[in-house]
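user: Here is a favour to ask of a fellow structure person. I have my own habits and do not want them to colour yours. Could you put it straight underneath, so I can go through it closely?

assistant:
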Amino acid sequence: MVNIANPIYDIVFKYLMEDERIARTILSALLKMDIVRVEIRPHEYSNTQRDTLSVFRIDFGATVRNSDGSEQLILVELQKTWLETETLRFRQYLGTQYQNPKNIVGANRDSFALPMVAIYLLGHRVGDIEEPVLYVQHKAYDYEGHPVTKGIPNPFVDSLTHDSIIVQIPRLHGQVNTRLDKVLSIFDQTHKSKESQQVLTLDDSLYEDDADMKHIVHRLLMASTDADVRQDMNVEDEYFAAIEKRDTEIMLRDRKLAEQQVQLSEQQVQLSEQQKLLGYSIQIMQDNGLSLEAISAKLGKSVEELKELLQHLS
C-alpha cells in the first residue's frame, strides 16, 4: 500500500496535470482517443480568485491521431470541482472559449473554431444518474430523425457544438475493470486515509504492469512530500471549512426565518379569526338595538375600529 496526495485538491490536481505524460495518459483514457501531444493552453483567468464556489480549470490543446493516420488539434477544457456548483458557472467558462480568437483557425470565410470537448470532474453526484462516467455526444439528424453521416464530421458543425464527459467522483467505488477505471482510481475518495482526507491509500500492486500509472502514482507521491503543496492543501481545507461553516450558519438562519414565518402566519390567522368573532359580536349587538356609540363604550374601542371590524365580515 502507498499513500499519495489526494488529487481532488486543486493544488494537487494542478501539480499532477502539469506533467505532459500524465495529462496525455488521463485525457487519452477519458477521450478514448490516441493522443500524440498535449499542451496546456494559457488563459486570462486562473483559480486564484475564489468566491462561494471552487471550480478549477485547465485548458489543453490535444493533438489526436485519427484512424487514417492524420493528426488533428482539438481543445479540451477540463474543469474540476469538489463542491456542488452552478451549471451557469460551467457555461460561462465555455463561453469564454468560444469567444477566444486563439481558438479560431483559418482566415475570413474559411475560418472555423477548433473542435472542443468539455470534461467535468465533479466531487458531487448529479441527480440520480448512477453511471460514474457519462458521455454526452452530439449527433446530426435530418427532419425525419435519421442520423446524417455523409459529410460528418464537418468543421462548421463542429465549431457550433461540443461533446462533454462528466465524471462523478463519488460514484467511483474501487472497481478496476477497464483502462479508464484504472486511471480514475487515483481520484476514488473511498481510498481516503482515516487520518487525513489529504491522503489516499492505494494498492500500488494494481499498477505494476502499467508504466504510465506507476508514473502517475510516483508524481502523487512526490506531491505528498512537497512542503508547498501540503501547505496549499491546508489552505484549501481552511477555505472550505469556512465555506461549510458559513453555509451551515445560512441554513440555520433560513430555517429559523422559516419557523418564524410559520409562527407569524399562524398568529395572523388567529388574529383574523378573533377579529371575525368580534365583528360577529358587534353585529349581534347591533341587531339587538345597540348603537355603535353604545357598543364602543361597552368594548372600549372607537367607532372607527368597530366599522373596520364589520367591514371584515363583508
Notes: Residues 2-225 form one domain. The longest strand covers residues 71-81. Confidence is low (pLDDT under 50) at residues 44-53. The chain is about 45% helix and 20% strand.
